[in-house]
Amino acid sequence: MKKEHLFKKHKGTDYQAKAEAFCEDYKQFLTVAKTERLSVEYFEAKAKANGFFNIADKTDFKAGDKVYYINRNRSAVFCVIGEEDLEAGINLVAAHIDSPRLDLKPSPVTEEGGFSYLRTHYYGGIKKYQWVATPLALYGVVVKKNGETVKIAIGDGENDPIFMVTDLLPHLASKQMTQKMTEGIPGEKLMVLSGSNPDLNAESDEVKTALLKILEEKYQITEEDFYSAEIEVVPAGKARDLGFDRSMVASYGHDDRVCAYTAFEGLLETKTPKKTAVVLLADREEVGSMGNSGMQSRFLEYFLEELKPSVRINKVMANTLCLSSDVAAAYDPMYAEVYEKQNSPIFGCGLTLLRYTGSRGKGGSSEASAEMVAKLRRIFDDNDIAYQFAELGKVDEGGGGTVAQYIANLGADVIDAGVALLSMHAPYEIAHKADIYEAYRAYVSFMA
Ligand code: MN
Ligand code: MN
């Protein structure tokens, strides 16, 4: 099938202008919601402003009602009730809102050679060498013993300090430069440089106590409070246009907030659908979806039971159509050797569909049936949505997974459907504005 650049396909219309305008709002979101908690906050506020009820505040639901559920401040379900009974199945779009990053260790504060540091433990699949010598910000919460929550956000305000992990100067890196890329920067060296002034009144550990004093004065948190904190180290800086033609968006966290945002915006366009439309935003996808905020837990089933206590979940799921909305690996001519071009998503040519992910012999993956794919082709063709079927690189090259298999295991028909990226999992990932907008259009048509 011929792949056509969407701006060319729609030339002479307002398509490109609409895509560009859509991405202006998307960039704002990326800039303010760099963690799963901040994403949940962002979407909850927007849902409320658009007439959604918290499921805890409402019991009787009728077609057209809008309702949401927040799970432990880190994952969420947003829903517009359809005309048909829940057991006729739902149209589900599932994305994730966690991204690869550095987490602070439980006891992070330390000092070494006149510098204070925060020790980290990386989360998700990162290339460690990409996280040194680049501006970083801290986001998260510290929950104190009395239950009080202190929010941390340092590094993106105009006058905020930033943080960094240092790298070796090339002059002394002759050994490092010959090491394997997996070994050049060991995990324990991902220490966030946090200060260098001594505590003028301390006798030992001067720099560490100086840092602890600042934390106490500015945030009223003690060293022990880090035990009950979730603080994430992420790239500092805004989402930006990329290229002379401003055709692309470079940002931290496209994976997978690009699908979360486009799916959520799509749901806002859903009035009274035939089938109940659900957007699920999961946490912990980058580490295998386990845990009570991840897709392997039961917060979707919990939500459906809250919606209708008598519901037969298995029947709902057996009749459910799901887009597992996650990013895909766009064909990158600079690394052409790992792609099989015919089955790779091409930038700017529309939504990427993957019937399966996994690695090598399709290991660790569900697979969308021919019947389901045919149904989806019909929906998208009827709505003039551009889509491209793809795989993740060459067969023997590697692989990956998404939340698709966990939803398929519940009995639903699932296909991966999302936006293709360059530099996936890098501190700054790249997406094409046309693909972002087309994903939004696709989700609108799927949930209508
Ligand atoms: Mn992802
Ligand atoms: Mn990922």
Description:
With 448 residues, the protein is α/β, with parallel strands linked by helices. It is 26% helix and 25% strand. It folds into two domains: 6-99 and 252-447, Zn peptidases (Aminopeptidase); 101-235, Aminopeptidase i, Domain 2. The protein has helices at residues 6-9, 15-32, 36-49, 181-184, 206-219, 254-268, 299-307, 313-318, 370-382, 404-408, 433-447, and strands spanning 53-54, 66-71, 75-80, 90-96, 101-112, 115-123, 136-143, 149-154, 191-195, 229-235, 240-242, 248-251, 276-282, 321-324, 328-329, 351-354, 358-359, 387-389, 399-400, 413-418, 420-422, 429-432. The strands form four sheets. The chain has a nine-stranded mixed β-sheet with strand order 1-2-3-13-4-14-20-16-18, with helices on both faces. It is globular and about 70 Å long. The two termini are 26 Å apart. The mean pLDDT is 96. Bound molecules: manganese (II) ion (2 copies).
Number of strands: 22
Helicity, in percent? Answer: 25-40%
Q: What is the CATH topology of the largest domain?
A: Aminopeptidase
Question: Helix/strand/pairing class, anyone?
Answer: alpha/beta
Number of domains: 2
- What is the averaged pLDDT score? 96
Largest sheet: 9 strands, mixed
Can you summarize this structure?
With 448 residues, this protein is α/β, with parallel strands linked by helices.
Any chance you could write out the topology, listing elements then pairs?
Elements: H1 6-9, H2 15-32, H3 36-49, E1 53-54, E2 66-71, E3 75-80, E4 90-96, E5 101-112, E6 115-123, E7 136-143, E8 149-154, H4 181-184, E9 191-195, H5 206-219, E10 229-235, E11 240-242, E12 248-251, H6 254-268, E13 276-282, H7 299-307, H8 313-318, E14 321-324, E15 328-329, E16 351-354, E17 358-359, H9 370-382, E18 387-389, E19 399-400, H10 404-408, E20 413-418, E21 420-422, E22 429-432, H11 433-447
